[in-house]
Write a structure and sequence with these properties.
Elements (H helix, E strand, L loop, with lengths): L32 H4 L14 E9 L6 E9 L2 E8 H16 L12 H19 L2 H4 L2 H15 L2 H4 L2 H6 L17 E7 L11 E7 L3 E6 L4 E7 L5 E5 L2 E5 L4 E5 L3 H22 L14 E9 L1 H14 L3 E6 L20 H10 L3 E7 L10 H9 L6 E6 L13 E5 L3 E5 L75 E2 L1 E6 H22 L30 E11 L1 H4 L5 E2 H12 L3 E6 L15 H15 L4 E5 L17 H14 L7 H5 L5 H7 E12 L2 E6 L1 E2 L2 E5 L3 E5 L5 H4 L6 E8 L2 E6 L2 E6 H15 L15 H23 L13 H6 L4 H8 L6 E3 L25
Parallel strand pairs: 12-13, 13-14, 17-25, 21-22, 22-23
Antiparallel strand pairs: 1-2, 2-3, 4-5, 4-10, 5-6, 6-7, 8-9, 9-10, 11-18, 11-19, 12-15, 15-16, 16-18, 19-20, 19-28, 21-26, 23-24, 23-31, 26-27, 27-28, 29-30
Amino acid sequence: MTSLPTIHENIYPELPSTSSFSSGQSLFTRTSEAALEEYEFLHNFFSTENTLQVVSAIEAIDSGNIWYEIFITHGQFEWTIHKKLTDILLLDWDLSIYRALGFTGPDTPKEGNALAKSKGLSEISNMAFILKSKEVLMKDHIKSVIADFLNSILAVNAYKRLSIVINFFEISKFSFILALGNKEKEGFLQKRSSCCLVKNASWNKRWFILKKNFLIYLDPSKNNVEGVFLFDTNTTLKQRNDKIAIKNFSHRILLKCPSAYHATVWKSAIEMNVAKILEYDWKNSREGIVCHSPIRNARAHWFVDGSDYFSAVADALLSATEEIFISGWFLAPHIHLKRRPELNNKWMLKSILKEKADEGVKIYILIYDGPDGFIKLADKFVENTLETLNKNNITVLRHRGKELDILWSHHEKLVIIDQRVAFVSGIDLTFGRWDYEGHPLTDLGNTTEHSVSSKTDNETPLKGQLWPGLDYANEYVSAGIDFTKPFKDHIDRQTCPRIPWHDIACVAYDDAAKDVARHFIQTWNFVKATEHRKDDRISFLIPKIVSIPFGDKNLDPNVYASKVQVQVLRSVSKWAAGLKEIESSIEDAYVKTIEESEHYIYIENQFFISYRNQEIVKNGIVSALCRRIERADREKTKFRLYIVLPLIPMFEGDFSKANKSRQIQVFANYQYHSISRGDETSLIGSLRKLLTEDQIDEYVCFSSLRTYAELNNEMISDIVYVHSKLMIADDRVAIIGSANINDRSLLGDRDSEVALWIKDMEMVDSTMNGQPYKVGKFASGLRKKIFVEHLGLSKVDTPVLNDVVSDEFYHDVWEKTADTNTIVYDEVFRSIPSDVVRRFSQVRRYQNESSDERMKSQLLDKVNGYLVNFPKQYLEDEDLSKKQSRLIPVSVFT
């Protein structure tokens, strides 16, 4: 008997012909003959190896009825059903009608044993009626007769095709799917949603299926999944007679059972599953964050910059056998996930998705539906492009909030393969994100004549380029682009540099991956239920429970993956996923990790907007950092805080000109008031009340990234844009995901986000503050890889990288590199932003102070890596807040 049976055509007329994970869609999408032969079909769901036993007879409290507890096994599946004698007699009666009408098969008994069994059941019934004796119905002999009768039915294949038999034994298309876990309680119940509080609200008959982590309910008229009720830490049940009210963080449903006894059995079964989840899944989570997922022992690996990340995503996508989930702020179908040794369209995202969809893999994509007039995301173009590749197997949902919630976006960036591999990052699969450690500013390739006016085929990139068409991006110069022409340049690469992109991503396996998938499923199902309920083309999704062994080398955990503890964190609320309570576990994890850090905190983030003790900006990051540094000062212990940010917020404009940088100024204003301006709000301003500037510098260092290149025989320089959403503590803990340090990402009721809290389980010897210290393989490896790139070092095993708390590293390596690089860039390029410039009126004079041309080359030889100082004093004498429109809520910017 195989472990993954499917349903054979014509075996169960009331069900679709295939087993499915999503409503009306096949779970096993490999359609080759060899794949189909691998599985038994549902008409063999009871074989001679199966057993059936009437375990006990129970007197029900509700009516005094006698209920028989019937235990059944089928291969590795075991379950129990509860039936009254009248249920069993009714089954016998229905089967006799079936035979009388002539619906028989070659193995259908016409007389003899079946009639004898029927007679035996009748005698039992008559005896109970005449004697009015419950004791008679509870005797072992009676239970044995019932068991023999039911086993005789299971010996007849023709009977097993009948819905009356299948319903009696509580069998459905989801019963024997190994990935969904054990076979548990199933059956018809009446259901109301939260509208059950409305007087005379109607009841709907649904087939309910209980699994370890959730309830599925099917519409019997269509046999489609109508909903999936996920169990969580807020799941509670209340029973009143034959009714059960069940609620979780998302919604509430009311169930009406055939009797009070049925209700007791259902309630007990559900409560047992919920209790097991709380006991097993959450038993190791006391040190974790209160959120939708517990701490898991898992495997994980990190990626620095988009090249390695996109390549790993490509391999994982090609390895999918059942389903692919993708969620993002935006997605560009025409990006190339692999680009070396040269561009090949087989590595284009849409090519990979089409290949897998044509193989039968189901692909579900959820992207932010940007409101017209705010963000031109061309999401409708993406939907049309992808769904036309394979209308049966690719589904794209676009979603945004209503009313005031329209201001917020789906900002998580997820790629999930078969619910067992989950990529979590800040990197959207879109233009401009692919980059590598070289971070080049130019890409002329073999087509030096190519410019913004060149005409190219929209499906074919030019050879010799790594960043074709829209991928050659500089959003400071031009943010508005035409996504329908992906391989047409929108800026002139002959005169304008691209903006290099620095980012961080990670991949998790095992139960942690299933937790990430659960978030996607919850969000998808919410959008389906609220906006597409009547669209049968769009399926509800169902979480997997049991991990199928890795069968493809490309799905095996990365060879560099570390054994870690992982907790999936979220910022999510009602508008994004239907939650009744806001979850802000990413902020909670940031604050907790900062407070518990012993030696250092390293932060890379696209934004740093956090005020101390102020209502205008509410997240607690700066407050937590201040408290940690104040504790270090009280205890007279060494502590370092490294923060790396982009030099300029990425919005179209020129930050050297007051009239061409309105949006940049608005965001920069909030960021400067989080860093150093404002004694009441900023990190450094708050510390000034306790410490001198020199003392603050011993604890805190703000940095950025910059690079240079030659374009048309002229040296140019521009920023390396930091888009990461990363924090590392003590080389032991890391937080990686999509959340920026601002209220939009952290409060939970605004942008939806996902991040992973990762704590090392594999430790190695190292040094911290001059003392022997155990560091984690994951966290320390990631931090060293980043530092090698930023500092321009040759290899990650450079000894000086071990102890980032020591004066030798902090002052003589990190700060010295940043100081030297900053001085060179200021001298050679008169770079903006710069601490030298305090007002816009000073920009022209500063930039006209040219340096000696003969010295530029010698000066640039002193540059190592990309690290520069973040210019905290740039435009310090300007009132940047005056550029903010009063018509737009402050919360949009913070």
